[in-house]
Each structure stands twice: as structure tokens, then as C-alpha cells.
Design brief:
alpha/beta; 30% helix
């Protein structure tokens, strides 16, 4: 039995029902998981071959149950490169969800705003990304059972799901931006010079996650919708220093808006999408 089979056996034994939709909650956004009905809680450390998050702001567990009537498997916290994990380790749970039968994936993150039209608390649908980590989870031998050696990234952020998200925001009166996410390693925040460079290249928001997960999802044919919460303006955008406390404070204040949007998106998802 290989490592995926061992992990899947443990997960399947503890899932109340077959999940249809995967959710990954970023920094400060974990409280959304509290809305899942009668969840089965599975700490990452209890799954064979699954790494454990070292970020105290991430609970580090799966929650399986129902949200807005849909069967979800939610990651309350993710893994990051700045924790010392390699890209393949970071995307291991994404591949597990694909092998479990998840048919669509919603990624969330906390991000710094580089677009001057943004403000802390705003939400941005990711249309594309710039990977400035210099790494890929697909480096090394290809996993042919998951996807091809070389795969297309043109529609890594699923256009139909982005359109559905726009419709959901219209339902609940939420303003939703669209933009390009810049993925960096961290854990240090970016310098003002780096932010100026990223803006010149077309970046709208910057963060320390998501890009590896999207690459792995695209590789195995898993449709992705990704939403950034702008929790602070990036370095040099305002005349003040940055702090992790500000990120969490903004996420706490505006998490209810993202929670409303996620629930409305789930309600709008047609059966054939999943």
C-alpha cells in the first residue's frame, strides 16, 4: 500500500459521507469552518504521511460535513513554504482530495493589496498568478496517475466558477474585485521595491500560499475558484510598517463577508459542476 492509499484509508474511515467540494481556509479565515454542520474533525497529524502545520493561526485539521447543503471537506489551515515544507508536501492534501473524489476546490487566502483601488477587507477573485517562489510541486518524477508531465495553466482558475462567484456577489451585495495574485515564499513581508516591481508586472495582491495548490489542482484536472481577502495594503502602499497582527485583525473583522460569499457560492453550484 503506497502513501496515498494509506492516507485515503484513514480519511475514508472517518468521513461521514463522500465529500463533493473542497475548501482551504487561509490565515485568519479559519472561523468559517465553524459554520459546517455536525463536522467530523480529523487533525492532520492523525493522517498517515500528512504534514502538520506549525503556524499557530492555522488549526491544522480537516472538517467534513455540510455547508449550505453541500458535502464539503474543509482544510482549516494549510501548509506553507516558509514553514520549511517543500512544494510536494504542501500539495499532498490537494492530491488527497482529488483522489477522494472532490470535484471542485475553493481556495482562500489573506493577501496584501498592491492595487491602489483596493482597501483592507476587500475580496478579490484570483484570475491568474505570478509564481515568485522559484519552485513547483511538479518538480521531479511525474505522477502519471494524476496528470501529464506537462500541463496547461491557461484555465487553472476556472472561468465558469469565477462567473458563478460574480453572480453570488450580486445576490448578496458584496463588492468583488478581480486580479492577479503574486505568490512568494515569505515569511518576511515584501520590500517596497519588490511591491513596485510586482505592480509593474501586473500584480494586484501578494501572499505566501495558493500558487502550489493551484498548480497541483490544474495538473490533476481539479477546477479551482480562489478568493483573496485583502487584509492589509502591501509594503510602501501606505506610510506605515506591516504586521501579522494587522492581517489577523482584518480577517476577524471582515470574515463574515467571506463566509456569506462562500455559502452563496455553494448554494449556486449546479450538480453538474461538481
Amino acid at each position: 500500500m503506497n502513501r496515498f492509499e494509506q492516507s485515503l484509508a484513514e480519511l475514508r474511515a472517518r468521513l461521514p459521507e463522500q465529500p463533493e467540494f473542497g475548501i482551504v481556509l487561509g490565515s485568519g479565515l479559519g472561523p468559517i469552518a465553524q459554520q459546517i454542520e455536525n463536522p467530523s474533525v480529523i487533525p492532520y497529524g492523525e493522517i498517515p504521511h500528512m504534514a502538520v502545520t506549525t503556524n499557530e493561526d492555522h488549526a491544522g485539521r480537516f472538517l467534513a460535513g455540510r455547508l449550505s447543503g453541500r458535502r464539503v471537506l474543509c482544510m482549516q489551515g494549510r501548509l506553507h513554504g516558509y514553514e520549511g515544507y517543500d512544494p510536494e508536501t504542501i500539495v499532498y492534501p490537494i492530491r488527497l482530495m482529488k483522489l477522494l473524489g472532490i470535484r471542485a476546490l475553493l481556495l482562500t487566502n489573506a493577501a496584501g493589496g498592491m492595487n491602489p483601488d483596493f482597501a483592507p477587507g476587500d475580496l478579490m477573485i484570483i484570475e491568474d498568478h505570478l509564481n515568485f517562489t522559484g519552485k513547483s510541486p511538479l518538480t521531479g518524477a511525474n505522477m502519471d496517475e494524476l496528470g501529464p508531465r506537462f500541463h496547461d495553466m491557461t484555465y487553472a482558475y476556472d472561468p465558469a466558477l469565477r462567473e458563478l462567484a460574480d453572480q453570488a456577489t450580486a445576490d448578496c451585495g458584496i463588492t468583488l474585485h478581480h486580479g492577479v495574485y503574486v505568490g512568494v515564499n515569505g515569511p518576511q513581508f515584501e520590500t517596497p521595491a519588490e511591491i513596485r516591481a510586482y505592480r509593474l508586472l501586473g500584480g494586484d495582491a501578494v501572499g505566501m500560499s495558493t500558487v502550489f495548490e493551484v498548480i497541483a489542482a490544474a495538473h490533476c484536472g481539479l477546477p479551482v475558484l480562489a478568493i483573496s481577502m485583502i487584509t492589509n495594503m502591501a509594503a510602501g502602499m501606505l506610510p506605515k510598517p506591516l504586521s501579522g497582527a494587522e492581517v489577523n485583525e482584518t480577517a476577524d473583522q471582515h470574515g463574515g463577508t467571506l463566509q456569506t460569499l462562500i455559502r452563496r457560492i455553494l448554494e449556486r453550484l449546479p450538480g453538474q459542476t461538481l
